[in-house]
Every structure is written in structure tokens, then in C-alpha cells.
Amino acid sequence: MNHLSFPRRLLAVALAGGLSSLSGLAGAADTIKIGVAGPMTGGYAAFGEQFWRGASQAAEDINAAGGIGGKQIELVKGDDACEPKQATAVANRLLDQDKVAAVVGHFCSSSTIPASEVYADAGVLVITPGSTNPKVTERGLPTMFRMCGRDDQQGPLAADFIVNELKAKKIAVVHDKDTYGQGIADAMRDRLKELQADDRVVLYEGLTRGEKDFNALVTKIKAADADTVYFGGLYNEAGPLLRQLREQGLKVNFLSGDGSLDPAIVTTAGGPQFVEGAYMTSVREARNIPTSQDVVRKMKEAGFDPAGFTLYAYASLEAIAASMNGAKTGDGMKLAEWLKSHTVSTVLGPKSWDSKGDLKETSFSLFIWGADGNYKEMQ
Amino acid sequence: MDWHILAQQLVNGLTLGSIYGLIAIGYTMVYGIVGMINFAHGDVYMVSAYLTAICLAVLFSFGIDSLPFALLATLATTLLITAAYGWTIERIAYRPLRGAPRLAPLISAIGMSLVLQNGVQLSQGAKTQGVPSLIPATLRLGEGNDFVQITLVQLMIIVVSLASMAMLTWLIQRTSLGRQCRATQQDRRMAAILGINTDRIISTVFVIGAAMAAIAGVLVTLNYGSFDFYIGFVTGIKAFTAAVLGGIGSLPGAMLGGLILGLSEALFSGMVNTDYKDVFAFSLLVLVLIFRPTGLLGKPEVEKV
Fold first, then answer.
1. CA angle A188, A192, A197 (to 5 degrees)
2. How confident is the model at residue A10 (pLDDT cuts 50, 70, 90)?
3. Residue of chain A minimizing CA distance to B264
4. Which strand (E) or helix (H) includes residue B8?
5. A269 falls within a domain
6. Are residues A255 and A294 in the same domain?
7. Would the CB atoms of A223 and B274 count as touching at under 8 Å?
8. Identity of the highest mean pLDDT range in A20-34, B7-21, B51-65
């Protein structure tokens, strides 16, 4: 640069310095990458979108408030399509290629379980907003957390309701042979055993995910003379099952879990007249909690109704950010220790975790579908 | 088991089997003429389900409230566009590979299937789509809670499948086009020397197969109401199994295979267990193939010397 005169050289240095500090703000080195993994495509993409929208809103709000220790959060999307094999591939990609510091995800328990082994090997913190199978936290992985309850809390709630409120005499239990679906159906049945009502189970069978024709099963339920059907599975199968039950003239009570509680079930069933009166258990309706009102309003204004797991994804990212701010490190093991010994205030209220990574307090609620195709929380 | 439960399971099985049979016709015709398995066929059926929903939505948004007219218009439009899909797929994915080894068009078919699936996923979204229940009419036989029922749509599925099968059999056996098809099947080069435009015949067969898939797509959408970009896979595998079971290359065989598959699924899941219905259906396939390697109605392959 000896062809530049001194003042010019000074200017060049100043400019270069200014540029580098600017690029420091936006560049890769000074952001914290966090993965958001779930079914972004495939039949269960509605849940993936809830994850992504919730986490994106949280990142925006945290970044606006100064980020994590001054660094901005950058989210990286990971699509597992609820396929266990793809889930491990996505986990490896997030770690090796994107070098994420923590992960919000996954959704289907059958994806979260294999993927969490990959994260655990790398010592990276994972919080799932929606995987409720007990095995997710029962394998002693130190960095695995959840922002939701467990099926062995959700299934029993349905069982209590079936026995005490509906006073069912003959119960048909159907599941989708998946980790989540069969897990929650088994948890429900185990609780029936505790209530000494397991002799009321007249049918226990699994259907195949991806199929649409459950007429043979419905006729079998009719032959068994069941008055209540419990389904462990997701809305893609719950909708057609419900429709075919009603079409064959069965006026049975229908109960299911959080995997079916999505507005999309009205579409998969072919109209609100088929879902009317169905009961479903799910995590508490997060949109009604006082602490979430600001975020709900903001997201609705942006044109997205934060239903289902949206706010759980939001809270998961908040917990990750809080642990990074609190422990002042990116090391997953230290973050996990911090989370297990502190209470984090999130959009869902204060949350704290036990030594397994389960929430210390969780509450499931019962919901009922109305004739208008909307569901509401039962008191 | 009560009579009405058994009869209901037969209705369930017949409906399911007719759907398999209708789609199996596409597999079997293409195999009969070209000797290749068109793995994209299930996805053509999936495309027709989307077309049905789009057509219905468009018609209703124009304020057409006569249901029979809307359904006929939907069927016609879906049939036309799906047939165009069938023709185009053959033109771009299979015709350039006419002289290639047998494996090449098979791989091309799998590629086409992926293109269709992902294309629909990207353009229509990954969410499950649906149409509201349009024809609630149901025939019921019996009293109180002991009745057998068949919905109008189920009846339509069974009747249309049998009619399509009969019509196509007549077409192949009795018409000039059918004679050309059979000649192309027996010896493509000789048929060409005798003045048959074999490329046109093969295109026609693909169009007919796609049209059958379109009919299935419309009826299935009306019956079950919901579909996604992935339905072609599950149904396609089952329909292909039906075609093999009945004897691939044989039209009545496709229908027979479909009905046997549907009935065995329904009866097994009704009497034994739903978890293992596919295991049962495929075990049946293995057994049939052990004793009749060319399927139930398939002609034994004569080695050409």
C-alpha cells in the first residue's frame, strides 16, 4: 500500500476495521447456531412448522433483547420427516456440517430417541418440545431434556376419564404400532389395570401408518360391541378412523392423545361433523397461559396461530438461551447441569427439570372437539 | 361371528379389493405390452387424487351446486389430465430407453416416481389434504344394530371396477386396437414390420393405465376423503402385489388378485388380527407364487428359441 498517502492509508485501515467489526456482528463466527429438528416435510409437517415458527419467534425476540452474551442466535432447520433413519442423518448433519451448539427437537419419539444418541455422543444439549414417550429421558442421557410431559402421565389421564367420567364398559384400544402411538396406548392400558378395569378392554390392535382404509378394523370394533375407542397415534390416521367409525354408524366415545389434537384432523376426517365430540389429551393449552399472551398476540399479528407445540418450541429455545447465559459456556454437559439446578422463566411460566431431564411439574388437560371444528380445553 | 359382521367384512374387502384391482390394471397392461414394471403408476394415482380435489374446489367456487354434474365434470377433467400424465411419462422416461437393457427403464420408473412425489409435495405442500364428505347416501340391510351397510361410493367403486375390467377385456379381445396391442405384445419387431405403429400402441396402453388410475383416484378421494403426496406408495405396492398375484399381464387376473388381496386383508383383520394383516396377505402371495410362479391367471412363459 505504499502508493497511498498517509491520510488515505489511515482511512483504509479505519474502513477495514469498521468493516470487520460490522461483519463480526453478522458473520458466522459470532453467531450461535441452534438446530431446530422435526418433521418439516412429510405427513406430519404441520408439527414441524409449529416447531420452526415457535423457535423463529423466540430467536427473534431473544436477539432483539441482546442475544446470548451479546451473540445473535442463528437457527438451522433439520428435517427428519418423522423417519428414525433420517433423524440420525439430520442429527449428524447438524453437528458435523452446521456445528450447532444446541438443538430444539425432535417431534416423533421414534425420531428423538435415535437422534438423541447422536447428540449425547457429541455432548450437545437437546430439548424436545413434543416427544412424550418415557424412553426419551429414561436412557440416562445427560443432555436430553423435554419441555413437555410424558405418555405415562398423559395415558393415565385418559384412562381415569374413561373409567370415572365416561363409565365405559367395553373399551377398544387401537394404536399405530409406532413408539409414540403404542407407548401412549400402553400407558393408558396400564392405568386401566391399576383401576382394576383392564377386563373392560375388548380389543387391542395396531393399524398401519399411511393407510386410509380401516373399515375392517371398524367392523371388528362393532362386532366387539365396544362403547369407547382409545386411539394412540397421529391425526393422519385418527381422522380416517374416526370418519369410518361414524360412517359405519358407531356412536362410540373416541379418545386420543396429543398427536391427534391438531386442526388438520378436521381435514383428514373429511369434516367437523366427524370429529365432533371426540376427546383428546394434550399438554395444557399454552395459548391461554397468562405469561404467553404477549407472544401469542405478536404471532397472531404476523399471521400464524401459535397452536399445539409452537409455544413449547418457543420455550425450549428460551431455556437453551437461559442456560447459555447462565452457565456462560457452550459445553452441553455444563449447560445440562445448569438447567437441572436452576429454574428458567419461559413463555409457559417457570420451568425446572429433574435429574433425568423431565419437567418437575407437568400438567396434561382434556380437550373436546366442537361441531365447528375447533377444540376447547375441558375444565 | 354374526352374519351381519361377516357380510360387512365382505363389503369392506370387496371395496378395498376393487380399488387394488383398478390400479393393478395399469401395472398389468403395461407389463403385458412392454414387459416392464411402471413403478410411477401408484404416483399417477396420487396425482389424480389431487386433481380431483382441485377440480371440485374450482367447480364449487364457481357456484356449481349440482353434485352429479360436478362429479362428472371432475371425473372427465381428472381423466384427461391424468391420461396426459401417463402419455408424458412414457414419452420422456421410457421411450428413449426402448432398446436399453431391462434394468434401465425400471430405474427410470423409480426416478419418475420420486419426481412425481416430490413435485407434488413441493407444489401442493406436505400436509394431508382432503375433500369434505359429499355423498352420504348409504344402503342398510337389517334391523337395529345388526345391519350390513354399503355406501353409495363403495357400491360405485365395486361396479365401476368390474365394468372397467370387462370393458378393457373386450377392448383387448375384440377390437382392432386390441389386436394391435396383442401383436405388439407377442413380437414388437414383427408387428412393426406388418405396419403397426408400436410406439403409438405403447403410448395408448400407458394412457389407458393412467385413465384407470384416474378413476381410482376420484373414487378413493370421494370414499376416504383425505390424501397426501405419499398415498401412491402404499396403494401402489398393494396394487402391484394384486397384479402379480392374479398373474401379471392378465386383465381378469389383476381384478381377481385385487379382490383376493382386499378380501384376505379384511377377513384376516376382522377374524384374527389387524397387526398382521399385511403379513398374511404377503404370505398368501408367496404361497401362490411357489405353486403358480406366473400367478393365478398368468400364462406360463414359453422360452423363445
1. 150
2. very low
3. A216
4. helix B3-34
5. yes
6. no
7. no
8. B7-21
A330 in the same domain as A307: yes
- Total structural domains in chain A? 2
> In sequence order, which ranges of chain A are alpha helices (DSSP H)?
6-26, 45-64, 84-96, 109-122, 135-138, 151-160, 179-194, 215-223, 235-247, 264-269, 272-275, 293-301, 310-327, 332-341
B175 to chain A, any CB pair closer than 8 A? The answer is no
Mark yes or no for CB contact B127/A220 under 8 Å. no
Mean pLDDT of chain A: 88
Residue B63 has pLDDT above 90, yes or no: no
- Answer whether A274 touches B (CB < 8 Å): yes
Is residue B66 assigned to a domain? yes
Assess if residue B131 is contained within a domain: yes
Cell of A32: 450461535
How much is the average pLDDT of A284-309?
89
Q: Is residue B220 part of a domain?
A: yes
Whether pLDDT at A19 is above 80: no
B125-128's contacts with Cβ under 8 Å and 24+ in sequence apart are: B125/A45, B126/A41, B126/A42, B126/A43, B126/A45, B126/B228, B126/B229, B127/A45, B127/A46, B127/A264, B127/A267, B127/B228, B128/A43, B128/A235, B128/A236, B128/A239, B128/A264, B128/A267, B128/A268, B128/B226, B128/B227, B128/B228
Q: Is B231 on the interface with A (CB under 8 A)?
A: yes
Domain limits for position A266: 152-283+365-377
CA-nearest residue to B7 within chain A is A219
Chain B contact for A121 (CB, 8 A cutoff): no
- Say yes or no for a CB contact (<8 Å) between A42 and B234: no
Q: What is the largest CA-CA distance in chain A?
A: 96
CATH number, domain with residue A166: 3.40.50.2300
At B218 the pLDDT is: 95
User: Where does chain B show beta strands of DSSP type E?
Assistant: 129-130, 138-143, 146-151, 226-227
Indicate yes or no: pTM above 0.90.
no
Residue B272 has pLDDT above 70, yes or no: yes
In a domain, A3, yes or no: no
Q: Which residue range(s) make up the domain with B277?
A: 3-291
Q: What are phi and psi of A35, to 5 degrees?
A: -80, 145
- A49 belongs to a structural domain: yes
Per DSSP, A129 falls in state: S
Question: Nearest 5°: phi and psi at A32?
Answer: -105, 120
Q: Do A205 and B274 touch (CB under 8 A)?
A: yes
A237 and A259 Cβ atoms separated by less than 8 Å: no
Q: Is A247 in contact with B2 (Cβ distance < 8 A)?
A: no
Q: Which of A205, A219, A264 sits opposite B5 (nearest CB)?
A: A219
Averaged pLDDT score across all residues of chain B: 91
Say if B225 is an interface residue toward chain A (CB within 8 Å).
yes
| Residue B144, in any domain of the structure | yes
The whole-number pLDDT of residue B1 equals 63
Q: Would you say residue A17 lies in a domain?
A: no
